[in-house]
Structure prediction request, 85 residues.
Amino acid sequence: MAVHYFDECQWVDMGYETIYQFIDSEGQSLAEVALKDSDAQLWKFQVMVPERYRLNDVNPGGVVATQTAARKICELILVSTIVNR
Prediction:
């Protein structure tokens, strides 16, 4: 498993400010935040973690009310699992 450092990762806009990916220094996507419902401003997030951190072979994810919250949750999950500060 490759070592990922938080300061080498960044959020990248993947299109029209509705999809963002957290990319490591090698271009691998570690997490994704996307607008799910524009009327209610709901954002879904998914964190791509190795199999040992998944429950029933499903990546952690959810839906929250703001983009900022979705990003912070993704960062917290990543720092708690595969990303070093």
